[in-house]
Write a structure and sequence with these properties.
Elements (H helix, E strand, L loop, with lengths): L1 H23 L9 H24 L5 H9 L8 H23 L25 H22 L9 H13 L1
Helix pairs in contact: 1-2, 1-4, 2-6, 3-4, 3-5, 5-6
Protein name: Aquaporin Z
Family: Belongs to the MIP/aquaporin (TC 1.A.8) family.
Membrane topology: Multi-pass membrane protein
Length: about 170
């Protein structure tokens, strides 16, 4: 139960810190943090949680990571579904907190809630094919970094930095 609570809190923090930076701080022309700031926010949330809860059992924070670690033989299959459930509930809770904060602004509109996508919903106008390719490629590299930096022969104590900085780079 302790590890599921940790996953819940960690994923809540990832959504609140990462998405929250996009919703609450990226759009101010004079003071906003922009794309670089949002990228750093996602990476920093992972770094902080890696050191806060990583010792409990992993700090996956994302179903793709849990599944990838299971496929890689580094995570017990019986824990995959409970982790995913904790992550989804944590993500919903983080988004709920963010909604409560953001909706306190007089001109708040749910349509501008840091959502993007492909084609006309992409800042660069990228196609669905491009979105799918980048998602698969970046998830592969992210899991490669996670598996490599947490390997028993990897330098101890640095996995959180490697993983968090990798996520920063992915968002950049």
């Amino acid at each position: 139960m302790k590890k599921l609570i940790a996953e819940f809190i960690g994923t809540l923090w990832l959504v609140l810190g990462g998405c929250g930076s996009a919703v609450l701080a990226a759009g101010f022309p004079e003071l906003g943090i922009g794309f670089v700031g949002v990228s750093l926010a996602f990476g920093l949330t992972v770094i902080t949680m890696a050191y806060a809860i990583g010792h409990i059992y992993g700090c996956h924070l994302n179903p793709a990571v849990s599944i990838g670690l299971w496929v890689g033989g580094r995570f017990d299959g019986k824990d995959v579904l409970p982790y995913i459930i904790a992550q989804v509930i944590g993500g919903i809770a983080g988004a709920g907190i963010l909604f409560l904060i953001a909706s306190g602004k007089p001109d708040f509109a749910l349509g501008g809630f840091a959502a993007n996508g492909y084609a006309e919903h992409s800042p660069g106008g990228f196609s669905m094919t491009s979105a799918l390719i980048i998602e698969v490629a970046m998830t592969f590299i992210f899991l490669f970094v996670i598996l490599g930096s947490t390997y028993t022969k990897a330098p101890r104590g640095f996995a959180g930095l490697a993983i968090g900085l990798c996520l920063t780079l992915i968002h950049l």
